[in-house]
Amino acid sequence: MHQRDYWESLYREEYDSFIKYNLYGEDWFEQYTDGGRKIVNFIDILRIEYTGSQCSFLDLGCGNGQFLFLLDPTKFTKILGVDYSSSAIELAKEMGEKKNSPIDWLQADVFALPPRVSNDEWNIIHDKGTLDAIELQGTKLVRDYLQVVVDLLAPKGYFIVTSCNKTLDELVSILDGKLSFYRNLTYPVFRFGGQEGTVLVTAAFVK
Ligand SMILES: C[S@@+](CC[C@H](N)C(=O)[O-])C[C@H]1O[C@@H](n2cnc3c(N)ncnc32)[C@H](O)[C@@H]1O
Which segments constitute the Methyltransferase domain (predicted)? Predict the structure, then answer.
């Protein structure tokens, strides 16, 4: 199955469950992030350091949008969630209407963003699991994707990425020369075969 079809059918099932049973779908990695709140707090600190007040926020590969609903929209000039899965975006829109949320949603491929997104400069770009998903389709795509991120970021803007596939060192290495490592969130450490690791990495990079 092509990966895009996989996401489409996953979010179609979530959409049906939401319409029929009012069940909210899964926020990726929620079991490690206190339901996303750890990352929200991390973002809040960076936002205050960046502008002292408000900034724009773009989520690439937002999925069902659950994570974005955790943000306080009054703290951002705008929040936009982008995903290439139409069922994910339909679901996010449905939930957003129910919550009376001001968040914007757009169905688009990150490699073919319309001018309304690509002509803008974003203060914070967020990625939770999207880099991982793109990497499954090829390592060259990862380089292309990171260039998209760099081009979209405003000067001094943050790229905040959460990955289950990459270590912090690997993230720093693939972003070398493009963005500078700024800070990371810590998760419980495990040891195996004399090596230390964490189940997840969340790191902020600055342009
Ligand atoms: C692991 S899920 C994470 C979803 C969401 N960020 C979360 O944390 O729950 C990866 C998401 O990336 C999206 N995605 C993958 N490749 C994409 C692309 N080229 N353009 C837009 N979205 C993409 C998928 O549709 C999927 O929603």
Answer: 53-181
Residue 177: which domain range?
A: 3-206
Cut 0.70: pTM above it: yes
In the chain, the number of structural domains is 1
Triad 153, 67, 125: Cα angle to 5°: 5
Ligand 1: does its nearest atom lie under 6 Å from the Cβ of 111?
A: yes
* Gap between the Cα atoms of 87 and 118, Å rounded: 23
The predicted-structure confidence for 107-116, as pLDDT tens digits, reads as follows 999 999 999 9
User: Which of 2, 4, 7, 86 for mutating ligand 1's site (highest number of atoms within 8 Å of CB)?
Assistant: 7
Q: Which atom, in ligand 1's list, is nearest to the CA of 132?
A: 1
Q: What is the pLDDT of residues 74-131, one digit of tens each?
A: 999 999 999 999 999 999 999 999 999 999 999 999 999 999 999 999 999 999 999 9
Please give the Cα distance from 198 to 168 (Å, whole number). Answer: 10
At 195, which CATH number?
Answer: 3.40.50.150
